Amino acid sequence: MEHGEPLDRVAHIQAEWRRERPDVDTTPQGVIGRLHRLAARLSEELCIVYARYGLSEGEFDVLCALRRAGEPYERAPGELAAHTMVTTGAMTKRIDRLEQAGLVTRRRRDSDQRGRIVALTTAGRELIDQAFTDHMRNERRLLDLLPPTEAASLETLLTAWLSHVEHPRPRGGE
């Protein structure tokens, strides 16, 4: 923080912990706490766009996963769950809601009568194309709060950090 700026909420919390527990290093809270707060605020901002299209965040994710599949815009429910990182139970609820809204259809897989396929309807494809365009515009607005060089540096740092968290390597050449 630049000298003279008021403490943000995370800095205030850190100061309280330094007072109460000077024996504990609270510097990680400066990054993790701010990322946590930023993620919550970004989610709020993104959900405004989803709501404009009558969608929850999860429903938006399902429609995007189907649209990204390319023609004929369909995937198995388990594949959708993997692409959106939710349980199959949560996926079933999302698909139910989207089917009721006429945005997706469900059918049996031709090769396996037990399997199911979820597909975008024409209305679903038109809606997600509009919603995704609006979503990207909104993300651009949020990212443009930073200078381009800082946004690029942040992407590089977050990519590296995420890789270390998702694919930990043994320390010390083990």
Describe this structure as you would to a colleague.
This protein has two domains: 7-52; 54-156, Winged helix-like DNA-binding domain superfamily/Winged helix DNA-binding domain (Arc Repressor Mutant, subunit A, Orthogonal Bundle), CATH 1.10.10.10. Helix content is 64%, strand content 10%. The protein has seven helices and three strands; from the N terminus they run H-H-H-E-H-H-E-E-H-H. The chain has a three-stranded antiparallel sheet with strand order 1-3-2. A hairpin with a 2-residue loop joins strand 2 (104-109) and strand 3 (112-120). It is elongated.
- The end-to-end distance, rounded to whole angstroms, is 38 Å
Low-confidence stretches: none
Instruction: Work out the strand percent.
Output: 5-15%
Distinct helical segment count:
7
Biggest β-sheet strands, sense, barrel: 3 strands, antiparallel
Please state the second-level CATH architecture of the largest domain: Orthogonal Bundle
> What is the fold named in CATH at topology level of the largest domain?
Arc Repressor Mutant, subunit A
Helicity range: 55-70%
Count of distinct structural domains: 2
| Category from helices, strands and their pairing | mainly alpha
Instruction: Report the count of strand segments.
Output: 3
Name given to the CATH homologous superfamily of the largest domain: Winged helix-like DNA-binding domain superfamily/Winged helix DNA-binding domain
Shape: elongated
The strand line-up of the biggest sheet is: 1-3-2
Compute the average pLDDT: 91
